[in-house]
Every structure is written in C-alpha cells, then in structure tokens.
Write a structure and sequence with these properties.
mainly beta; Lipocalin; 3-stranded antiparallel β-sheet; 18 strands
C-alpha cells in the first residue's frame, strides 16, 4: 500500500481533554474531560488544540526517498456535558479541524467537521458525599460511541489523500474507567480506556486503541480563584490496521506523552492551558510520528 497508514482521531479517546473543577474537590486536573467534575452541573465549553506531525517517505524513487512531510492539525472542540440523573452524565464532543500538509513537492489544506462522539459516564463512588474530611476520591466508568460525521478520503492510487484525516468513516465504540484521589491540596487521577473500531464502507478498519494515563495535581486557592497545576504521563498503543480483511503490516504505533497543564477556575468559569511533548514515539510505517501538542480552552458550568 502506498502513503501513510497512521491517522489522528481528531476528537478524543475518552481522555486527554479539558474540563471544570468541582467545589467539593473530589477531582483531578481540569485539563482532562474524563474527570468530569462539578457533577451536579451542566457544562458547555470550547477548546483549541494544535498538534504537529512529521513523516519520512521510504521509496525506490530517489526524488521521494527520505522526503519529509509536515502536518499541522488545528482543532476546535465543542464540548457539552449534561446530567441525565443522579450520578449519570452524558458528554458530547464535536470537533472542527483545519489540517495543513506540506513537503518539498506539494502542499494541501483540509477543513471540515470531525467525528462526533458521545460518552455516558456513571459515578460508582458519589463524589458529592466523599468520605473523610481531608481524603476524598471518585471512581467513574464510561461507555460511548463515535459516529462517522467527519470526511474520510480514499483513492485508487493512494490509500489516503492525507495521513491525518477529518474522520475514519466508521462507527466505533469507547469504554473507560477513571479513578481520582485527593488528600488536602494534592492528588492524582488514573485512567484506562479502550476504543473498538469497526470497518468503514471502504472496507478499511483502523486498529483498536488502548491507552492509560496518570496525572498528579496541586490545588491552590487565592481568594475566589482556584489554580490547579498538574504533570503526568500518558501511554497509547494502536493495533495494526486492516484493509479489505487483510492485515496492514507495520501499521501499529506506541506513544508516550508527558502532559503539563494549568487550570484556573473562577466561579462558573474555567480556563485551561496544556502542553504535551512526546517523549517516546514508535510508528512502524514510514516513520510517521507526533511531535507535540498544545491546547487551551474555556468552559462554563450552569
């Protein structure tokens, strides 16, 4: 097969997004959607993310061999979380992406809607009734789905018109678990998730994805403002892809990021800033790799 097999799901994989902090403080960093604090409130938000990729072509053609291609993905995520009943929330994610790809031989731009996702989460431990005066924790389980609202491109000559696409063209399924612990002003949260992909109408199936993360945070209150810095590690493994029921060899990937975040909360408003450098990146097919990601968002609870 020609061209790159890697793809970025421009929405999320159940984690790695921004959110609000809750007043009862059974929460981790606000820069992770999956923490879902302020459980008795609805939330609406907007987040901007810039992610940078690089790939190196391997070809028998001397003009193409070793050619470096850069891809820049700018995504605006629209986020909403709504309380359906006690301890049960529905989150909705809708991305709009601006993709730029350029090399020494060509350049292209793609703009459009990404794949929309829905996540239903249930709180096993009620964070609004935390046990203990200083030690508090929260445990949540979630299931969801991703719909093919983003465009997926495939041609006869090239598998993709770009290696980073707006969507996968398939209906996929999500599952995750998140545990958060806080003792006085310090705490951590850990999450694990799995994404089960299906084949799209072009009979292409992107590899399933498993990921996990741990984040450590500190809470500081200055008058009515709450500041919450955090550091952590995330790991994601993507299994090999399938094309027309044939395994696409060397299309798996492993990536480790070291996110650094700062969340600021004031009354009903939250502002989040984060950077996520890549410390380990293994993508077997044609040297495709993520370089870094930065993001910022604003959220309102009501």
């Amino acid at each position: 097969m020609k061209n790159r097999i890697a793809i970025v799901l421009l929405l999320f994989f159940v984690s790695g997004h921004s959110s609000m902090a809750q007043s009862c403080c059974c929460t981790g960093t606000g820069s992770n959607y999956s923490i879902l604090p302020n459980l008795n409130k609805h939330i609406l938000g907007l987040r901007y993310t810039h992610t940078d990729y690089q790939s190196k072509t391997q070809s028998l053609n001397s003009e193409l061999d070793g050619m470096i291609t850069y891809e820049h993905v700018n995504t605006v995520d629209l986020f909403g979380r709504f309380n359906l009943m006690k301890q049960l929330q529905l989150s909705v994610f809708l991305p709009i992406s601006f993709i730029q790809e350029h090399s020494t031989l060509s350049a292209s731009k793609t703009v459009g809607l990404g794949d929309m996702s829905f996540l239903l989460q249930y709180s096993v431990l009620d964070p609004l009734k935390c046990n203990g005066k200083t030690a508090k924790h929260q445990l949540r389980f979630g299931i969801g789905t991703k719909l093919p609202s983003g465009e997926f491109n495939k041609s006869e000559n090239n598998l993709y018109s770009t290696s980073v696409q707006l969507g996968t063209g398939s209906i996929d399924f999500l599952a995750n678990a998140i545990y958060t612990f806080r003792f006085k002003k310090i705490g951590f949260n850990a999450q694990a998730g799995y994404k089960l992909n299906t084949s799209n109408p072009d009979q292409f199936k992107f590899g399933d994805k498993v990921d996990g993360s741990v984040n450590f945070f500190y809470v500081a209150d200055i008058n009515e403002v709450r500041i919450m810095p955090s550091v952590g590690l995330t790991y994601a493994h993507t299994f090999e892809n399938w094309n027309k029921h044939q395994l696409v060899y060397l299309s798996y990937s492993d990536i480790v990021n070291a996110p650094i975040s700062l969340d600021i909360y004031y009354k009903r408003i939250a502002i989040t800033l984060s950077g996520s450098p890549v410390i380990y990146n293994r993508v077997a097919f044609k040297g495709f790799k993520q370089r870094y990601s930065v993001s910022g968002g604003v959220f309102y609870n009501f």
